[in-house]
Input
Amino acid sequence: MKDPDIEKIAAILKKGGIALLPAGTVYGLFCSALSKKGAAKIYSLKGRSYDKPLQVFLNDRADIKQYASVSPEKAKKIASYLPGPYTIILKLKKSRLRTFSFLKTGTAGFRVVNIAMINDIIFALGSPLASTSANISGDATPVKYADITDKILKGSDIKVKNDILAAGRASSVIDMTGRADKVLRK
Output
């Protein structure tokens, strides 16, 4: 797929499908963050433990406040990271604890990226995206399309190949749930 058809991708995701997309860092498997079927398909395809949550992709860092409690101080810190190659872990609001079927701990890892394709898909879908790297659990993370296994390629309902939008390194993960921020992955 050369020029991604955003509406087609969104339609597949709305039906519980999964998309293989470059995420600005590495290639990822994406579904609607509100789709139990899509999330289950990602976990099954990867052989991923349900103890490992998916990331939540949003259009804008201001959208995080819909899902997580963010103090003005944390908002300033978040603004220094997002949009960018970071996953920010925050505590979910009590009213949002059941919003995402793949989150069991009361926290979520949020991403906001400067990739028009990802943001256009979120807009067309009308909901956040959920994602994880496009590899079998425990295997190397694919940094180029050619690195993706046949199982992942065949299990994806739609694919976008664009190595320019995959920088070759997984996002840094920063846990902002405690008093002091913790870098969990650089």
